[in-house]
Amino acid sequence: MNTTKFQEQILQNAVQMDASINFQTNGNLLIVPCPWEGDKEVTGGERVKYRAGVEVDADGRTRVKRYNIGKKGPLHDTLFETPHGAVKITRPQYRYKADGYHKAGPRRRMDEEFVYVMFKFPKKYGLALTKALYEEEADEIMSYFKTRKEETVWK
Fold first, then answer.
1. pLDDT in tens, 33-90
2. Edge-to-edge strand order for the sheet containing 19-23?
């Protein structure tokens, strides 16, 4: 981690304020102090930016930005789920512009699409129960793959 880019920034002191919270349609939150709280200073006269998209102004106005999941939505689509596992696929990738090797136009990039099988079992189950559940759910997932054989591109 590069420590020169991020410096820990702490509020001047613990401040309590009356405020209103605005929930915006894009997922952001805007916390605005009430007008009678105008005499309180929070950050020492400048805007402070924290990790996770939190910005605090000197007067206490706070913006919380939603997490950016990706420019075009989630990275994976869930194809099939079991109680402790899931089959996911990366979303289709398209190349629209021409480069030195490829023509222009929408072309699907199959080399960047992958199918993932993920299992997550609680530790309290123990090894024997986890293995039994794994075999059972792996059989379910393999039968799902057999039904999708024509639709799935195999390398």
1. 777 777 777 777 777 777 667 888 877 778 887 766 556 667 788 888 999 999 998 8
2. 19-23, 29-33, 62-64, 54-56, 48-50
> 46, 68, 90: which is the final residue of a domain?
68
Let me know if 56 is exposed, middle or buried by CB neighbors in 10 A (0-12, 13-18, 19+).
buried
In-domain check, residue 152: no
Q: Residue 40 is part of which domain span?
A: 1-68
Are 132 and 119 in contact by the 8 Å Cβ rule? The answer is: no
**Domain count within the chain:** 2
pTM exceeds 0.70 for this model: no
Residue 147 to residues 110, 116, 143: CA-CA distances in angstroms?
21, 17, 6
How buried is 51 (Cβ within 10 angstroms: 0-12 exposed, 13-18 middle, 19+ buried)?
Answer: exposed
Q: Are 134 and 121 in contact (CB under 8 A)?
A: yes
Residue 90 domain flag = yes
In a domain, 19, yes or no: yes
